[in-house]
Design a protein that fits this description.
Length: about 290
């Protein structure tokens, strides 16, 4: 497990990170969410050791990370930094070799990744000849080719079309399933909602929410319900203690007094459905930041 504890960092007088703590668990995809400038990239750079913290620790498998025991990170930076003139396959293989991977493994890993990322047909093209979305896939291959212990990806899904998102997702899930902790930032909440096991939300340099997707949903669920009956549901507003949030013919969304509403509904006729309303990640995000 990768453990971040009490990380702080300032730039001049500006405190950008204030006691940031969270875990990235092996075998799980952890989404790192926050508004622009909330401190995601700064946190990732400190985790990677390319930027110093002014307080706090990063630990890997229970031991504080230092120059001697840094795990092998696969990093996809926000500023994509590959060579535009170099051919795709040569570039990925070369990056693997830079990480100390032997020639044969480097070639094999490169070809497997290009296949998984549906780039085999572009392997001999220069990077600059590819569309931006395909260049993005090459960046992902570059982060993964040396079989890193931990994956840290800054906005890996930005600029990808929905099919490309699925392709990249499959590749990342495969790594997570093999036991690699995967931390990635994203502004695309719908994607995070669908694919993340764990979610960390940062706001103005502080952790605003943190936990498994289900834990967060349950924690922020409140006392909200949806009922669908046969006839008009307007009577729900007369049930004592109830606050109506939405009313649309036979459907009502309301807060509080669920048992009273259900009883009153059954007295009147058939109940088509009655469910607690679980908040979306989008709603949780807006609530906590
Ligand atoms: N090298 C630096 N010098 C001064 N300020 C910096 C530096 N790096 C980051 N900052 C400031 O730290 C804050 C957090 O920036 P950071 O890049 O970590 O945010 P982010 O959450 O990754 O944002 P985005 O979603 O826009 O990528 C911002 O106010 C930024 O201006």
């Amino acid at each position: 497990m990768l453990t971040v504890r009490g990380i702080s960092r300032s730039f001049g007088d500006h405190k950008v990170l204030d006691e940031v703590s969270f875990d990235v668990r092996p075998g799980r995809m952890t989404g790192f969410l926050g508004a622009n400038g909330s401190g995601k990239t700064t946190t990732m750079r400190i985790v990677l050791g390319v930027l110093a913290a002014h307080g706090g620790t990063v630990s890997w498998k229970g031991t504080e990370v230092g120059p001697d025991n840094r795990p092998d990170f696969g990093y996809m930076p926000e500023e994509r930094g590959l060579y535009p003139k170099m051919k795709v396959r040569d570039q990925i293989t070369w990056l693997a070799r830079l990480h100390g991977v032997d020639r044969e493994t480097a070639r094999r890993n490169t070809d497997e990744l290009l296949e998984d990322l549906e780039l085999t047909g572009r392997a001999g093209d220069r990077l600059e000849e590819l569309s931006l979305g395909n260049q993005q896939r090459v960046q992902i291959a570059a982060a993964l080719v040396h079989e890193p212990d931990v994956l840290i990806l800054d906005e890996p899904f930005s600029g990808l079309d929905p099919l490309a998102v699925e392709t990249v997702l499959d590749v990342l899930r495969k790594r997570a399933a093999a036991g690699v902790p995967v931390l990635f930032s994203s502004h695309q909440l719908a994607i995070v909602e669908r694919l993340c096991d764990d979610v960390v939300i940062i706001s103005k340099g502080r952790i605003a929410a943190n936990g498994s997707r289900e834990e967060l949903r349950a924690k922020h669920a409140g006392d909200r319900y949806e009922i669908v009956v046969e006839q008009d549901a307007g009577w729900v507003r007369d049930v004592p203690g109830v606050t109506i949030l939405e009313l649309d013919g036979p459907r009502a969304v309301f807060e509080a007094a669920p048992q009273q509403v259900l009883r009153a509904a059954l007295d009147r006729g058939e109940v088509r459905s009655f469910t607690p309303v679980v908040p979306t990640l989008d709603e949780i995000f807006k609530e906590v930041i």
